[in-house]
Here is the input.
Amino acid sequence: MRIEDTDRERLAPESLPQILEILKFLGIVWDEGPYYQSERLSLYQEFAKKLVDQRKAYFCFCTSERLDQMRKEMQKKGLPPKYDRTCLGLLKEEIDKKISAGASHTVRLKIPDNGETSWDDLVHGKITFKNSDLDDQILLKSDGWPTYHLAVVIDDYLMKITHVLRGDEWISSKNMGYLH
Here is the structure.
């Protein structure tokens, strides 16, 4: 049993006892946990650092104002609003200097420029996205908390989860794939 509680804005801790009670009522019994993602922050931060070290992710220092302006400009041009990778080309010295100065930053996944990302979905069959259509999602927020996209993938991997049931609205997010 895993409690995905990293979205601090939508968190409703008072609902947890009710959820556990309903699961028990339905006869759903878990063999481990519950594990709370909020208690695993250092683990997610460690994986984010590993991804940066492997150049599969990168630091982003863009302000929310800059990102909002960028999205508006892309929408005016009829383009899907996705990150323009301004921070992807920063040199290590620039990054170290910004971090040392306390600059607010996130960690973004570096999606390959070419090729496709695909997986087999038991309901929909093979789902494929062109990498050029995918966005460099934020994995670690500026407050050090992981996004769903990082925490759930790491936990699924470490917990050896083989099947996941999620709503169709997550299909466009599942393009993240597994990070290993």
